Amino acid sequence: MPPVKKKTWSKKKAPSPFAQLTALLERYTVAGAAGLIVMLGLVGVVLWAGGYFAMAGRSVDRAVQSAAVGAGLEIRRVLLRGAHQTAHQEVMDAIGPVVGESIMRLSLDEARVRIEQLGWVRSASVTRLLPDTISIAIREREPAAVWQINGDLNLIDDSGALIREVGAYEYSNLQLIVGSGAPEAAAGILQAIGVQPELQKRVYALVRVGERRWDMRLRNEIKVKLPEENYKRAIDDLALLQAAQSTLDQPLEYIDLRDPERMVIRKRGEPETALN
Question: Homologous superfamily of 77-140 in CATH?
Answer without folding.
Answer: membrane protein fhac (3.10.20.310)
